[in-house]
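Lecture 7, part B: from sequences to assemblies.

Below are the input chains for today's worked example.
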Amino acid sequence: MKRLLYGVVLLAGFLCVTTSCTEEQDFSQIDDLSITPILASGIFYLESDEDTINSASSGGPFYTREVNFDAFSQDYVAERLLEGTITYEMENTTSKPVRILIEFLDEGGTVLDMEVLDISADPSGVVTRDVFYGPGGKSLDILANTYSLRIRALNLGDTSSVSSQDDPKVILRSGAEFLFELQ
Amino acid sequence: MRIPSGLLLFALLCNVLATAQNKQLLYDFNEIPQSLMVNPGVKTSQKWHAGIPVLSGLAFQGATSGVTVNDLFANDGVDFTTKVRERLLDVMSDRDDFSSTSQIEGITVGFRGRNRPDTYYSFGMYGEMDIISYWPKDLAILAFEGNGGNNIGRSFDLGDLNLRGEMINVFHFGINKKIDNSLTIGGRAKIYSSIFQFQSIRNSGSFVTRPGQNNIYESAISADMQLQTAGIRGFYDIAEEDTGTTQKDVTSLFTERVLLGGNLGLGLDFGFSYNLNTQTTITGSILDVGFISNSKDVWNYTLNGSTTTEGITVFLPEDINNVDNDLWQELLDDIEEELPYGENDSGYISWRPVKLYGSVRYDFGEGGRGSVFENCGCGVNVDGGNNRDYYRNSVGGQLFMVKRPKGVQAALTGFYQRSFGRVLSLKTTYTVDKYTFTNVGLGANLQLGPINFYVLADNLLSYSNIADSHYASLQFGFNIISWNNN
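Predicted structure of the full complex, as structure tokens:
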């Protein structure tokens, strides 16, 4: 009788192993997973001393350069870009106002968009501009189709004055924070 | 001998689901011949044994120290992304792991020496797959949240990438010797025939995006990372070729690797059992002290270097004459140069995960057959040996430790074992480890004449909802055992 009892216990244990239960699982939920990281990066930094600015005519450019920039137009990036902000910061300790133009150009060189960043002469403080792209802001297509940036820095003052500051400079900083949908 | 493909598939599937390597139910369960595989110095009483090919020992173990399948995939109406964030990203640490171990015994044979009845020899072959991946916490957060927003200034540890896996076939030969009535010792030599191996276990480095010295942000990365693989590219190349003979080619390569045609290694097991008195026994074993020399079909990937970038930088007047308009591409090229991604085929040594067992057992409850130390009639065992023929009950504790890539992992087990003559033995265990505090296991060994069947199952409480289990393990097998009197 005892052996029978233990036999039953053993059988029950074995059945427990082979017929274990599980709550209902829905593995298709993985399709609902949303991975949307915010990626941040510095983009462009321009620094110029006052002598270089003075070398340009009044109202004329002291720096002009077109640089390729396809960070956003890569297919993988462009398809996943949701929204984001490009932040520009300017600081000027020179004696003259400066304007920096940043043009977003497509593959054929057509201007898609332009940012005009003006900063007064010293003391200017730090001037910040946030440009939002996405719903309610500028079109993401601008970034998705940008293959190069044309940067021009203009001297809006005279060509001879010198700031009393030590090592006077104009500085443009820029960085981006964008939301991507990886899945 | 042809292993049914369904069985192989089942084994591989279980490998994906399984984790951990502790065989606390099998350890010192000396009625089961396979207990020799976890302690070569276990007390043996049989004259000979032979496992039924492929079915003598199947072991599947799976564990996760963090999230369970049910945590993520239960049909509970909670948004899946929320579950991933709250139950995975916010909870799991870089020491949590997913791991899987499975073994399929192909052949196992043991016999007592004709002229050395105090010595029991055993040999055989088994396949093993062992994979462990620690949760790459920082990399997961980087992928999920990115380096921006609240993560500006956060340093992501690239060393969180830590994984290791291998599939091997093991040929082994062991000797178990009874020194006297108190002490039995044993050793086992192993030849490892590697089918594949990969490891990425000594990574270091960091990635951080923070306010820059000049620009708004600067990103700095420092990496010393390596993924070593051996035996994988051969299978990959076959799959890539897609010649119509893929299955045949894979089978051929697999068979070659199983039969010592791939990378080889050596290993040793040692163990002992010692009677402190007629009722108290201590045992210990150390397993898989060995390595595999990976020199064939090696393909390694490296990422080594450091760089910091703030984006395109122009300083005037220094850069006024730089008319190059590929500044962005140059920036990317510079990063690639300072942080080169490389491939090489340098051989390497992979160490086996060393395991250590120890136990103390107290036998009690007179009423069994014969008298103390009367046993199977095997050589020295004629006048000594297995007390379980006399004492029906055993109680004790076991310690298990295994060397993992991030350190030693331990488990503590308390057990109770009861024998019902030679026909039936039951063992129940309670185990505490990093995976669960509620692991109750049950093992049964059934001996019907020469036919031996055993089944050992862990963490039974979780079987009410196996998807919510942090640990699951199942071992079973058939053997034929002979004593002198049968």
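Note for the exam: The radius of gyration of chain B is 27 Å. Keep this in mind when comparing with the next example.
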